[in-house]
Amino acid sequence: MTPLDYSIVAAYLALMVAIGVTLQKRASRNIDSYFLGERSMPWWALGASGMAGNVDVSGTMINVALVYAIGAAGFFIEIRGGIVLIMAFLMAFVGKWYRRAQVMTLAEWMEFRFGRTREGAMARLIMAIVVLLFTIAAITMFSIGAGKFVGEFLGLPPLFGLSPDFWAAAIMIALATFYTVLSGLQGVVWTDVIQGGFILVMILYICAIALAQGPLPEQFLVSMPMNDGSFQAVAVSREAWSDVIPKWRLDLDPQSQYAIFNLFGVAIFFYLLKVFIEGSGGTGGYMAQRYFAARNDREAGLLSMFWIFLLSFRWPFIMAVAILGIHYGLTHPTIPDPERVLPVVIRTYVPLGLRGLIVAGLMSAAMSTFVSIVNAGAAYWVKDIYQAFLRPQASAKQLLRHSRWSSVLIVVLGLLLSLNIANINQIWGWLTMSIGGGLVVPLFARWYWWRLNGWGFAAGMFGGAVAALLQLFFFTGLPEYTIFAWVSGVSLMAMLITTLLTPPTREAVLKHFYLTTHPFGWWGPIRSQLPQKEVAAIRSETRRDLASAALAVPWQLVLFLTGMCLVLRTWDTLYWLLALLLLLSLALYRVWYRHLT
User: 548 exposed, middle or buried (CB, 10 Å; 0-12, 13-18, 19+)?
Assistant: First the structure.
């Protein structure tokens, strides 16, 4: 890059640090201000922050890699997590359910659901420990992706036996940790809003470059990562590569790392099943934190809609980068590592002088995800372990000090773990289908089954986490649907057995939860004890919520595919998608938007 490019990146980093310093005093009032921004931030800022938190460099690099190597159908692989399809459920009803609890963390929510008893405390403790484990793994993924991307531009030498990628990630992490530790959620959200602007400019610019390149040739080469660490060039046709309609089976080399997706129809079925359970059960970490910070039910819905709309720009960007990666291979050797397509494209197609702006945009994507994860993860240590179990009488000053030091420790552990992970897809697959599969069953049951108690929830979470760790260390290389079935099955059995062998949660706690949250599902014994007028109102809300979710899921998928087809220039498919998008949008307006209160 030129001195101008480096100056743009330096100015961006200085601005992020300046915001952190400016908001330090406001964030230091108490932990409610530090972790929730005193529930006073506007919905559009929370939605923009959520989008920036989802558009991470590591996830973008693996999504580009899948589309580049497999074709447009690679989009459907990311139903497992990269499409963030759980947002449709958060928009329809789960987001407002979270907000109604008026808690700070998902672990604290466990006492709202199971009571301030030993079972509630156990559910809270296990939830906090598992989320911290998930947080450290997510930071590991961030470190690998950020290192691969930023390392392409900084040109750092290896030091102390550690790779340039590691040191590139360490530099970014140190800067992001600094302003996150200072300013808490308010700093995270407002820096995310600015970073979202960088991201949007970057997306539009790259899409314009891809459209200017002209259509792809009839035949071209892509690259496939192999199990032995090598890469193999593969010839594909434009028609097959551009087809957005998924096939039941792929025909990838059995020795490829992506051969786990060959039973494509089975994989997508399990991804959809996982998303249905996960979406209906709600999310955790920084995504749930945005809803805990929302002002009211209406703003919880609006921030979700805005979040999804902004996320829709990510997929045409991913398609544009994959297309430019193929164009690069027409005049240069094929890019060997699909996970490095993104930095190669930026280096090749973005002119000097503008490259700094694009690099700053992608650094924004990386840092916004990172700071969101760190801030939410630290809350679980401070609120749900340190204050709840170790120092109940801790002062505000002590809690803030632990908030900052726990953020630093989480970051260091995640960075060190990245030294033992080979690629982004390895850790991403584990996060979404292994440890993610271990969490979804108890997280789902807590809303819809009155009989689930805190002991059963804790056992399900613990069993799923142990099964996921065993899979990571002893059963690598299995298809993701096999991993998901194994881990979620262990979690389900542990949850059911423990729940049925222990007493139910107290009725007073269950009634309070039901009347506050308005969930649906197997709540007959509790509903039968409540006034019929209140039950009728809750059932009316339930019908709207279910109809909204049934519309929101295809609406989100069609919205994302529409942008991809625009960049692909598959005009016939684009026209059908636009018509379907219009119909779904009108239906959502009538069923969901008009009833936001």
Answer: buried
The span from the CA of 63 to the CA of 539, in Å, is 40
Whose structure tokens read 């998303």? 275
Burial (Cβ within 10 Å: 0-12, 13-18, ≥19) of residue 263 = middle
Annotation: CATH topology of 24-425: Sodium/glucose cotransporter (1.20.1730)
Residue 152's pLDDT band (cuts 50, 70, 90): low
Fill in the DSSP letter of residue 159. Answer: B
SS3 250: coil
> What tokens appear for 173 in the block?
């992490």
Give the number of other Cβ atoms within 10 Å of residue 549's Cβ: 21
CA dist 410 and 510 (Å) reads: 35
Residue 266 exposure: Cα atoms within 13 Å on the Cβ side? 13
Answer for the pair 461, 488: CB distance below 8 angstroms, yes or no.
no
Give the type of residue at 596. Answer: L
* Cα gap 414→136, rounded to integer Å: 5
Of 162-176, 332-346, 571-585, the range with the lowest mean pLDDT is: 162-176
- 410 closest CA partner among 447, 431, 381, 369: 381
Residues 6+ apart with CB under 8 A from 33: 26, 27, 184, 186
What is the helix (H) or strand (E) element at residue 168, kind and residue range? helix 164-212
The span from the CA of 27 to the CA of 444, in Å, is: 33
Question: Which of 53-67, 110-124, 444-458, 507-521 has the lowest average pLDDT?
Answer: 53-67
Question: Per-residue DSSP letters for 477-529?
Answer: T--HHHHHHHHHHHHHHHHHHHHHTSPPPPHHHHHHHHHHH---SB-HHHHTT
Of 135, 15, 43, 196, the closest CA to residue 375 belongs to 135
pLDDT tens profile 465-500: 898 888 877 877 677 778 888 888 999 999 999 999
* Between residues 514 and 359, the one the model is more confident about: 514
In percent, how much of the chain has pLDDT > 90?
A: 32
What pLDDT is stored for residue 520 in this prediction?
92
pLDDT tens digits, 229-250: 788 888 999 988 998 888 888 8
Alpha helices for 115-163 (secondary structure H): 118-154
The residues, any chain, with a CB within 8 Å of residue 475's CB and separated by 6 or more, are 483, 486
pLDDT at 307 over 80: yes
